[in-house]
Amino acid sequence: MKKFVAILSFLLSLFFVVPAQKVNVYERPLQYERSRDYDAKHYRIALTFDLDKKYFEGENRITLTPL
């Protein structure tokens, strides 16, 4: 049985040949960085978990400075 599965897998793999993806890195569209007028200095995330109720809550505080 194992021999049959191995031969069948090999034969099926011959029919499902997937060509490699061809990507020309020099013709890709340029990805520009987002413009923003602030700098994120610090992220603070405070979470509390209630494992019995499968529940969590929290708050997120972000400290920003202008550029």
TrEMBL record:
Tell me the InterPro entries matching this sequence: Aminopeptidase_N-like_N_sf
Report the protein name in the record: Uncharacterized protein
Q: Can you name the source organism?
A: marine sediment metagenome
